Amino acid sequence: MEIKEIRELIKFVSQSGVSEVELEQGDFKLSIKNVNSNAPVYMQAPMQQMQAYQQPQVQQAPQISAPAVESVSAPTPVSSEGNLITIKSPMIGTFYRSSSPDKPSFVNVGDEIKTGKVICIIEAMKLFNEIESEIGGKIVKVLVENAQPVEYDQPLFLVEPN
């Protein structure tokens, strides 16, 4: 894999909102992690392996097309309940309903929320990220158990908008 291709891959990761990409070709391994959109992206690969794979006999990696990227925290309508909106996880991490085990939950079923209210915390790489609501309304259902791992774009809450 050539340096130009690695740079294009780093640019893709930083612009697309993807949090991590791993690529493996034989003995060559490449891992790119995007901690947050403002942080630089770091590449980890031994220099010897990179030089060895710049030789012409190595097959090139397939082209990666950038998927359409939606707003990470934009609520998505749910058709099964009519006007309910799903609040989805903006990142991979561990979901917490409160700031500590002895504190009350940020929100419970039946609570009214407003735009900007902290509704949960997602821990990612030892950082606790407060997730704020993008909409106002009433919490209808909490879809994730406390201290459970969540994926990017996984539904967390169902909200009946105001």
What does this protein structure show overall?
By secondary structure, this protein is mainly beta. It folds into 2 domains: 3-52, no CATH class; 76-161, Beta Barrel (OB fold (Dihydrolipoamide Acetyltransferase, E2P)). Helix content is 12%, strand content 35%. The protein contains 2 helices and 12 strands, in the order αβββαβββββββββ. The protein has helices at residues 3-16, 47-52, and strands spanning 20-25, 28-33, 42-44, 76-77, 85-88, 93-96, 112-113, 118-124, 127-132, 137-142, 148-150, 155-161. A 5-stranded antiparallel beta sheet has the order 4-5-12-10-7, with no helix packed on it. Strands 9-8-6-11 form a 4-stranded antiparallel beta sheet, with no helix packed on it. Strands 1-2-3 form a 3-stranded antiparallel beta sheet, with no helix packed on it. The protein is elongated, with a radius of gyration of 20 Å. It starts with a helix and ends with a strand. Mean pLDDT is 76; it is low at 37-56 and 65-80.
What class do helices, strands and sheet pairing give?
Answer: mainly beta
- The rounded distance between the terminal residues' Cα atoms is 52 Å
Content of β-strand: 25-35%
- Using DSSP, what is the number of strands? 12
Widest sheet, order of strands: 4-5-12-10-7
**Strand and helix order:** HEEEHEEEEEEEEE
- Categorize the overall geometry: elongated
